[in-house]
Amino acid sequence: MAAIAENNVNADNQHTTPPLEEKLNGMKLKDETKVAAETLDQAKKQEEVAAAAAAEEEEVAVEVEPKTGISFPVKLADGKELMTVGLRKKSMLGMGIKIYGFGMYYDKEKLKENLKTKIDSKASTKPTKEMYQAVIDSDSAMTVRLVIVFSSLTMNMVKKNFDEGLGASIKKLTGGKKNDDLANKVMGAASDGIKLSSGSVIEISRLPGNVLQTKVVDEVISKVDSELLCRAYVNMYLGDDPLDKEAKEKFGMQLLSMF
C-alpha cells in the first residue's frame, strides 16, 4: 500500500509545474515580449530618421536674385509660390548700397480667383497699371522674404527705412495725408538689440483679413490689422515708384501668365 501511495505522489509531481518555475517562465515571456516591442519601436524610429534625412537631401528648386546671388525657394512651406525677386538699394555717401534681396510670394490660386473678373490677358500683352492696382487692393495671401545683404545693417536702420518707405507709400494712397503712427506699427516693437547680419531673414506677410504680420529672424514682431497698411506695403513693390522696377515688371508677366 505504501508503495502504491508513493507512486501516486510521483505521478502527481510529474503533472504539476512547481510554482517558482511557473513564475520564472512567465517573467521570461514578458521580457521577451518587451524586447520585441522595443526592437520594433527602434526600427520605426530609424525609418522615420531615414525618411527625414532623405527629405532634407532632396534638392529644393530655387531662383537666384542675380544682383546679390541670393537663392530663394520657388515655393514656401505654406504653399505660396515665388512671383519675382529683386534688390533693395539705398543711397549712402553718394553710393548705391545693396541693402537686401527680396522674393515676393503669393498664393497663386487665391490670387487668380480674386482677380479673375479684373484681368483680361487677351486684351493686353503687357502688364497694365490697372493690373498692378488690382493686386495691391486684393486681400490675397502674400509674403515678401527679405534677405539681408549689407552686413553693417542694424535693427535701428531697418526700422527707420521701413518707417520712411511705408510712410511715403501711405501718403501716395491717401492723397498726401501722413499717417506716421500707422507706418511705425510694423517695426516699432522690434528691439534695437536684435542682431542682424548678412543672410538674416525678415518676412512680412499679408494675412487674410488684411493683417500685416512681420517676422524678424523667425520672431513675430507685429501683427497689424489695417487694409491701408497692407495696400501701402504691396504698393512699395508694385506701385508707380517701386523699389525694383525689373522685379515689378517680372511680377506683371508672371501675373499675365496665370490667366
Automatic annotation (TrEMBL):
Pfam families: Chalcone_3
One BP annotation, GO: fatty acid metabolic process
Cellular component GO terms held in the UniProt record: chloroplast stroma
Domain Chalcone isomerase, chain residue ranges per copy: 129-250
Biased composition (Polar residues): 7-17
Gene3D superfamilies, per database record: 1.10.890.20, 3.50.70.10
Region (Disordered): 1-21
InterPro entries: Chalcone_isomerase (IPR016087), Chalcone_isomerase_3-sand (IPR016088), Chalcone_isomerase_bundle_sf (IPR016089), Chalcone_isomerase_sf (IPR036298), FAP1 (IPR044228)
GO MF terms, alphabetically ordered: fatty acid binding; intramolecular lyase activity
Family: Belongs to the chalcone isomerase family.
Name the UniProt record assigns to this protein: Chalcone isomerase domain-containing protein
Protein's organism: Linum tenue
UniProt lineage: Eukaryota, Viridiplantae, Streptophyta, Embryophyta, Tracheophyta
